[in-house]
Amino acid sequence: MLYVDWPGVDDPWIGVNVDLVALQCFVCQVFHISMDQCGPPVVIGLQPEKQAGYARVYSLQIPPRNIIARLVAPAKPLFKTESEVAAMDFVRHHISLPVPVLYIYCSEATWDPIQLSQKKTLARDLVDVYDQLYRLKEDGCGGIYYGANPTMYDLASFSRSPRWALLSPESLRLLRSHCHHPIKDGYELGPIHDILLINYQLMVPTPSQTMPVFSSKEYVKLIAFNGLPPTRSYFDIPIREKCVELFQHIQTLYPKSPLFGEQSDASSFRFSHGNLREGNILIDPQSGEITGVIDWEAAAFRPSWATVLGVGWFEEDSQ
Prior knowledge:
319 residues; alpha+beta; 3 domains; three-stranded antiparallel β-sheet; disordered N terminus
């Protein structure tokens, strides 16, 4: 949750993502009921994206009661919320206005329900996630795809998710022309989808501009120039060339490094999620165990150093 509390900000909800499933789970915990006994949160008034102000209001049906949940943007959360709750209690106890009864509230913008023991479990599981992914290695940097040969799908050892409909001849042609570096178990390396390439504001490079590469130096060029051939503007290219030169200097400074040295590519490239952040890791709120990892669109084989930090140092040219 991003703390937004400075003059000139029109939308106090910038950077805040409301998890309605988590809200429903929280209400169920407060009232000691199961999820099937509680209706989903229904927005009251305008849709959230059209609401102005600091609060968003939702209704949840717990027969025979109707519970109202009010979520407040994290601007001056402590004093604003504490004052509001005290004012409601004060009015309800001294005069007869119909002020709602509060079942529970929280004035901490960074409230964390996970206890230390649960965090230890989460940390252990997270290390295991990185460890298991790191064990997968190949001889090139690229995204992973099913082999385009349909006969391999009949192999008993080959398991794949069901596709809704058969690919068109054009789609099959595109896959075959861009994914032709075989790896283990019937998969192939193909175009890379690093987050920076997907989120680039000016142009998303075509698959032919993000084909697999087979050295760390070429991988850095691919990200720095936003594809090969580059999609960077003429004036932006010199800045990106400095990024490539920086990596080459690092290799010179650490020639025997297992991560950056000239021989590091000989130890092959490792598989990584590509966007392993808190929003993509699902955990059990009771135990702290990781129950799922989502958003695998940027998963690929990369240089060892990129499996942890990624290419965040390309996000700001001035760096």
